[in-house]
Amino acid sequence: MTETTIPTIQIVDAPKYVGQTVKIGAWLRQKRGSGKMAFLQLRDGTAFFQGVVAKADVSEELFDLAKDLKQETSLYVTGEIHADDRSSFGYEISISGLEIIGESQDYPITPKEHGTDFLFDERHLYLRHIKPFATLKIRNTLIAATYEFFNQEGFIKLDAPLMTGSAPEGTTDLFETDYFGQSAYLSQTGQLYAEAGAMAFSKVFTFGPAFRAEKSKTRRHLTEFWMIEPEMAFMHQEQSLELQERYFAFMIEKVLERNDQELDLLKRDKDLLRSYTELPFPRVSYDDAIKLLQDNDFDVEWGVDFGSPEETFLANHFSKPVFITNFPKAIKAFYMKRHPDRDDVVISADLLAPEGYGEIIGGSERDTDYDYLKAQIEKEGLDMEEYGWYLDLRKYGSVPHSGFGLGLERMVTFVTGEEHIREAIPFPRMTHRLRP
Ligand code: 4AD
């Protein structure tokens, strides 16, 4: 076969070329070898596999070149694809030609164990490694599945501004910035804008970054995270919960369908994941959750917000995601709908994931009453001037409506089975991390 007829392929397509000679642009992850063989671990951004150079089959020059390659050198390899049952990918390439594209210096992330801080200082390079590769591919599926789901449900995507004057989720964790002499905040949520959108388009979702100056250093908090916030006109809370669980299960199904290899690389239990697609999820009132916790020796009283141990216990108790409904009004946002029969709780729900992943969705029905919301805004000490437009939505044809917010990185962490949320975003922002 002449050079011109050799197809250039990507590793992921190797199974279609068994027995054929192909050319692949790749990077060298690792290598090992003996006097007679060099084994090159290759990656090209689509998959990982092994290239084998046998001294007996190639020129001495090529064998020496392969033996001396440094980690992360970029190259074109040419060779024949074989099935290989011993590798997790199932295929390898017998290399007959090698061309260096870009030399590599001494690469800092070597095959030995490195500390997490070091890896995240080198995140721009660490992205090339197996765990980030698998995790962020799954993130990509969750993003794609989000668009698919909401498109098929008749939603339109509405882009909310990221610089705002309002602080709907409370004033304690705002990032403030100067906006031509006046204060602006990086958006905590797109919800208020989504509510305006729902009155115009019936069903909308926002999907963008949210910023919270969270001082708490936990494995679930980022200061910049991505949130999906659907908002539905003429929809009460129970219908919203049904939509939430269908969306949640849809995302898991898509990952199971499309990311088999990545789930294996991360050693995620796929049967367990599949069990989370069985609907409906249990609904437990906040009142009952408190009782359940107290009966199990938790030192909690009615009125407190749940911390991580309580959330972990509750979801594990049901072995599946669980909605905790109707939280105390005092610990929830100003816009949540009052309960028709009680003035101490609101029509809200948090979806808690099992295995210690905690809250992934927070949502509620929205109050529709102009005077009540105005009083709430005053009570919270929020700047009324910033909320005039929001109150307008209650002046001109207010309707029942509900919505929720799903934290993308919490979902990625849960689906991939990662320990820490920083793995779930390409470049995490946390209290002590602003670069790279
Ligand atoms: O419960 P939260 O604060 O709700 C809202 O922002 C509402 N406006 C949503 C709505 O009804 N439209 O946040 C929603 C979700 C949480 O359940 C969590 O998954 C995620 O956003 N989240 C965070 N994720 C990472 N780091 C943080 N600091 C987060 N804070 C919230």
As a percent range, the share of strand residues is 25-35%
**Poorly predicted spans:** none
Order of helices and strands: EEEHEEHHHEEEEHEEHHHEHHEEEHHEH
Distance between the amino and carboxyl termini: 46 Å
Query: Biggest sheet, strands in spatial order?
Result: 6-10-11-16-15-14-13-12
Explain this structure.
It catalyses: tRNA(Asn) + L-asparagine + ATP = L-asparaginyl-tRNA(Asn) + AMP + diphosphate + H(+). Belongs to the class-II aminoacyl-tRNA synthetase family. Homodimer. Its EC number is 6.1.1.22. It comes from Fructobacillus ficulneus. With 436 residues, this protein is of the alpha+beta class. The chain has two domains: 3-102, Nucleic acid-binding proteins (OB fold (Dihydrolipoamide Acetyltransferase, E2P), Beta Barrel), CATH 2.40.50.140; 123-424, 2-Layer Sandwich (BirA Bifunctional Protein, domain 2), CATH 3.30.930. It has 13 helices and 16 strands. The strands form three sheets. It has an eight-stranded mixed sheet with strand order 6-10-11-16-15-14-13-12. Strands 1-2-3-5-4 form a five-stranded mixed beta barrel. A three-stranded antiparallel sheet has the order 7-9-8, with no helix packed on it. α4 (130-152) crosses α6, α4 crosses α13 and α11 runs antiparallel to α12. The protein is elongated and about 85 Å long. The model has no long low-confidence stretch (mean pLDDT 96). The structure holds 4-amino-1,4-dioxobutan-2-aminium adenosine-5'-monophosphate (4AD). 4-amino-1,4-dioxobutan-2-aminium adenosine-5'-monophosphate binds at residues 169, 189, 191, 212, 214, 221-222, 225, 227, 229, 359-364, 403-405, 407, 409-410.
